[in-house]
Design a protein that fits this description.
By secondary structure, the protein is α/β, with parallel strands linked by helices. The protein is 50% helix and 12% strand. It has 7 helices and 5 strands, in the order H-H-E-H-E-H-E-H-E-H-E-H. The chain has a 5-stranded parallel β-sheet with strand order 1-5-4-2-3. The longest helix has 24 residues. The model has no long low-confidence stretch (mean pLDDT 88).
């Protein structure tokens, strides 16, 4: 017991560090199915809807062609705007908002929801086209 009381600070740091190492795994499991840029391109070519959940200013600065912009905060109210019979590829800046949006879509009954791994940053890094709002 003396060891624990004398080293509580080190023990706390060890637990916090372990949690930080596990967070990406937990976050990925919350996101559900993720797709890389090649898989996303195939889904889009097969008719999937691209849902960009960033705010309007971010969307205007650059987005995937033919994507729909519904910010995460508005998604619960506007989920009916998405076609029910098509898969949805959810995109944000880096992937974290897309995971929350995908979870909201699943709660609304959607099963065909995929998050773009790496978000728009990953899309750009792969050299794929981005359009800007005129």
């Amino acid at each position: 017991m003396k060891f624990v009381t004398e080293n509580i600070f080190l023990i706390v740091i060890a637990f916090v560090s372990g949690g930080m190492l596990l967070w990406p795994l937990v976050n990925r499991s919350l996101a559900g199915a993720t797709v890389n840029t090649l898989q996303a391109t195939r889904l889009i070519n097969d008719g999937a809807v691209v849902l960009d959940v960033r705010d309007a200013a971010e969307y205007g600065a650059g987005h995937l062609a033919n994507s729909r912009n519904i910010p995460t905060a508005e998604l619960d109210k506007r989920v009916a705007e998405l076609p029910a019979n098509k898969p949805v590829v959810v995109v944000c800046a880096s992937g974290s908002r897309a995971a929350r949006a995908a979870a909201a879509l699943r709660r609304a009954g959607r099963t065909d929801v995929f998050c773009l791994d790496g978000g728009l940053a990953g899309w750009r890094q792969a050299g794929l086209p981005v359009v800007k709002k005129a």
